[in-house]
Amino acid sequence: MLQQSRTPRETIGSYWEASVDHVRQDRQLIGNAHFDVAVIGAGYAGLSAALKLAKSGLSIGVLEAEHVGFGASGRNGGFCCLGGTKLDARQLIRRFGLDEARKFAAYQVAGINLVAQRLENWGVDADCHSKGEICLAHRPKDLASLKEEAAFLKDNFGIRTRVLGKSELDSEGYGGPEFHGGLHMPYGFALNPLKYLLALGDQVRQAGGRIFGKSPVTGVNQDGECWRLETEHGYVRAKKIVLAGNGYARETVPKWLHGRTLPVMSSIQVTRPLSEGELSDQGWTADTMAADTRKLLHYFRLLPDRRFLFGTRGGIFEKAPALTAMQKRARNDFETMFPAWAHVETEFAWHGNVCLARNLTPFVGEVPRMDGIYAAMGWHGSGIAMASLSGEKIAGLVTGSLRRDDLPSPLQIPFRKFPLPAFRKLYLQGAYWIYGWLDR
Ligand SMILES: Cc1cc2nc3c(=O)[nH]c(=O)nc-3n(C[C@H](O)[C@H](O)[C@H](O)COP(=O)(O)OP(=O)(O)OC[C@H]3O[C@@H](n4cnc5c(N)ncnc54)[C@H](O)[C@@H]3O)c2cc1C
């Protein structure tokens, strides 16, 4: 399954890169070009928008700072699951009402279905596995909360989950000293995120969309009836623009974005393949994707080739010593949660940015007071399904085939500015301390 990566330029160091034989480097934008719609960012959101727009007959240019697969879409955990907000179901109901919360839940399920349907339609083998996902109680007392959650989801959303006690976890291959019960959600599956993304990029090119690599947009300015996107070696003019930079977006591209998002690091490690003996020593043989009940959660799954993927929050700073400390902390957590594998080497370790917003909900819509500029961003760490579907939806808003109110209310609210944005990293550090304490 592993192939020698022939990626000529900088690599992320991810297992996903090593699992494909080629990561395509699209040509840089040199000179000037005009498109009906220009998209900033070649992740799931930008490429999904580009695909839909190109198929509707519009000329599309996607400007990507590095290459398809550089952003979070090429380096995530591959959990195609519910999510996209940091508000829980109760908060969503309080803020938007039960009907809108239900509409939003249905939207998340539709996102999962869209990804599954695409893989099937395109004939892509993305190493899929796992029927649904399981949330594991990291303290005995959390099992009671999972039971309450199961009843709440059934009563309000009609979602039928399954609650597992400790003995069921052990007998079904979810063994570990920190797993005291579980809640199985029937939605979602796991995939190789880069294989999916590369296929999406191919679909865009086949539909006539142009993707430019190594073309970071450094400015967006009004130019007559169009917008002009500046890059190092040229510019693009377009009447409409889709912002899809998410956790990699530049703060002032356009100026409206300044102080409105918070990039947050997440980190992943992948071990060497485990033997059958090692799997049974730990008692973990299930192939269901899993996360724990911590606020600073860990997410993990046994990959089809028996490697173990283990993800957790990243650090605050991207300097080398901070990254080393982050990987060490993640490895310690792994050894605590899976002690029988303390001797098993980590073969791949990498990190990337997710995107948080002050509202704690994504934004899929037209940017206020910037006619023709649309944004689809802020998936709060769960973007495979959410960004894929929202990319399609933003295309609908751009062409006018969809109205703002067709979207669930939680997606309609433009990002608010963080108070004193310069201190965002400090807020994050504070949140980590508080959550770390609550998780004990
Ligand atoms: C380590 C990690 C694990 C994760 N695990 C999961 C998971 O298991 N399940 C899940 O659902 N989600 C997960 N996520 C989140 C998910 O990957 C993202 O929400 C999703 O990929 C975002 O897609 P996107 O298209 O919005 O942005 P991205 O994929 O980040 O793409 C944005 C692109 O925009 C480009 N860009 C930004 N600014 C500019 C500019 N000015 N000019 C040109 N290009 C620009 C960037 O280079 C980047 O390639 C994870 C994320 C990380 C980092």
Quickly list its features.
2 domains; FAD/NAD(P)-binding domain; 8-stranded mixed sheet; 11 helices; globular; 440 residues; D-Amino Acid Oxidase, Chain A, domain 2; 18 strands; alpha/beta; 32% helix
Describe the structure.
This protein is of the alpha/beta class and 440 residues long. The protein folds into two domains: 15-76 and 194-260 and 358-431, FAD/NAD(P)-binding domain (3-Layer(bba) Sandwich), CATH 3.50.50; 129-189 and 263-356, D-Amino Acid Oxidase, Chain A, domain 2. The chain contains eleven helices and 18 strands. The strands form three sheets. Strands 1, 2, 8, 9, 10, 11, 17 and 18 form an eight-stranded mixed beta sheet that branches. Strand 1, helix 2 (44-55) and strand 2 (60-63) form a beta-alpha-beta unit. The longest helix is centred in the first third of the chain and has 25 residues, at 98-122. The chain is globular. The two termini are 39 Å apart.
